[in-house]
Every structure is written in structure tokens, then in C-alpha cells.
Design brief:
CATH topology of the largest domain: Beta-Lactamase
Helix content: 55-70%
Number of domains: 2
CATH superfamily of the largest domain: GAF domain
CATH class of the largest domain: Alpha Beta
Oligomer: single chain
Length: 276
């Protein structure tokens, strides 16, 4: 489904949910108002009962029966009020979930749009870095691309670690190399220590165009406020695996072709300037 259509569907679902929530709130107010009326009626009957005891035993019995009936009705209303209160609480929680899903979808749409908004290689890589940092919440990570000739992965951009400190990794070697070779994401079972090993990431995502891996994203450490990955993080990883790969690959090809065109043009200019 198109991201914009998904966003529109979520807005419709949110509005429908809010209508249900408002109806529940209106019913609650009605129950409280009715309960207040019953309380007032009980007080009136108690006063009548008190006066009737002095003059008419039969009237007293009738009033007592009415009071018992009203008390029972009041009890049922209070039970229903508590049920509605619980339903409202449940609706509020669901609303927050829908709102969060809506925000997540918006973030995914923005991230996807940004990735395909440029054909400049350095700009595309910078956008991927910002998505990983701001949306995923990673503090220490790297983007590594595969050299088709040597079949080795090398870092082209990093955050929290120097590019020159990143090792080159052969396809199939270790966790990172296996992800590049097999094209399957890796998630560590345990969090790393204070100084994580650059060969042992907590997450490694292959950058794939169809089944062809052009590189990987390796994450070593999350931000302090980021305690664990959420469902939207995995959606982001899935999106990055394809969209980031396409954006980086396309921008790199474009940049290379631009350089070749400049070289060819310079060569042609030299030929034109050469004296006859």
C-alpha cells in the first residue's frame, strides 16, 4: 500500500475511534447525571418515609419498597458506570496506539521521501545517517559498501566511530561478512559493553537491491534514552534495506557518470583547442 494511502487510512481509523470515544464519554456523563437524580430521589423518599412512619404503616412499607428498588437501580447504574469507565480507559489506550502508529507512518514516509530526493552520493549517505540517528536512535554505527572487485566491505560513513578505525571485512567473514553474503539481517541477543567490538554489532542490516547486496548498515550502540527496539524500528530497518540501498546505489552511479562526463568533456575541449 502507498505510504500516503496508509496515512489516510490511519486518519480515518483515528476519527472513527474518536467518535466511539466521545459516545462513551457522553454515556458516562448521562450515567452520572442519572445517578445524581436517584440520590436526590432517595433522600426525598427517606424524608417521606420518616414522616409516614408516624401516620401510615402501609405507606411506610410502600416507601421502603420504592427505596429498595431505587437503591438496586443505583447499584446497577454504578456497575455500568464502572464498566464504561474501563471501556473509556481501553479506548484511550487504543487511541494512543493509533496515534503512535500514525506518527510512525509519517516518519517512515518522510524518511522514504528524503532518501529519493537527491542524486548526490554524499547527500544520500548523509540522509541515511540522519535516519539511523534520529528515527532509530543509534549512537554508534556505520554504513559499509561492498567492493565488487575485492569482495570486501569498507566504511563510507560513520557516527560515533572514525571511518579509518573501521576494519575492512571480507564477504562471509564474521557476523558482518555473513550478513553481506547471505542477505539476512542480524540482531544480537545481548547488549554490548561500554566499548563494543567493531566486529560484533548489535544490528547488521544488508543493503539489498532485489537479492543483490551492495553493502550493510552496522549498529554498535544505541542512544542512552533508547532502551530497546520497537516495532517501527524493524519497519525502518526493512525500509532501509531496500530504499537506502537503491538511493545509495543510484546516487553513486550518477556521481560516477557525472565525473566521466566531465572527463570526456574536458578531453573534447582539449581536442578543440589543439591547433590544426
Amino acid at each position: 500500500m502507498d505510504s500516503r494511502e496508509g496515512h489516510k487510512d490511519l486518519k480515518i481509523r483515528t476519527e472513527e475511534f474518536l467518535q466511539i470515544f466521545r459516545k462513551g464519554e457522553e454515556f458516562t456523563q448521562e450515567v452520572l447525571a442519572e445517578n445524581e437524580k436517584l440520590r436526590f430521589k432517595i433522600v426525598q423518599l427517606e424524608e417521606e418515609n420518616k414522616r409516614a412512619r408516624e401516620v401510615d404503616p402501609a405507606r411506610v412499607k410502600t416507601l421502603e419498597e420504592q427505596m429498595a428498588s431505587l437503591v438496586e437501580e443505583n447499584r446497577r447504574l454504578m456497575e455500568r458506570y464502572r464498566e464504561v469507565e474501563l471501556e473509556n480507559k481501553s479506548f484511550a489506550e487504543k487511541y494512543l496506539e493509533v496515534e503512535q502508529e500514525n506518527n510512525n507512518l509519517a516518519n517512515l514516509y518522510v524518511a522514504s521521501y528524503q532518501l529519493h530526493s537527491t542524486l548526490d552520493f554524499s547527500e544520500a549517505v548523509k540522509t541515511v545517517l540522519e535516519i539511523i540517528m534520529n528515527l532509530v536512535g543509534a549512537e554508534k554505527f556505520a554504513i559499509m559498501l561492498l567492493d565488487e572487485k575485492t569482495m570486501e566491505l569498507s566504511a563510507v560513513a560513520t557516527e560515533g566511530v572514525a571511518v579509518e578505525d573501521m576494519p575492512s571485512i571480507a564477504t562471509g567473514e564474521g557476523i558482518i561478512g555473513r550478513v553481506a553474503a547471505e542477505g539476512e539481517s542480524y540482531y544480537a541477543a545481548d547488549a554490548p559493553g561500554e566499548k563494543p567490538d567493531l566486529l560484533l554489532p548489535i544490528v547488521c542490516i544488508p543493503l539489498k537491491i532485489k537479492e543483490h547486496v551492495i553493502g550493510v548498515i552496522v549498529i554498535y550502540k544505541l542512544l542512552v534514552q533508547k532502551k530497546e527496539f520497537t516495532e517501527v524500528d524493524y519497519e525502518l530497518f526493512s525500509m532501509l534495506a531496500g530504499h537506502a540501498a537503491t538511493a545509495i546505489f543510484s546516487s553513486r552511479l550518477y556521481s560516477q557518470s557525472e565525473r566521466k562526463l566531465v572527463t570526456i568533456q574536458s578531453f573534447l575541449d582539449l581536442i578543440k583547442e589543439k591547433p590544426a
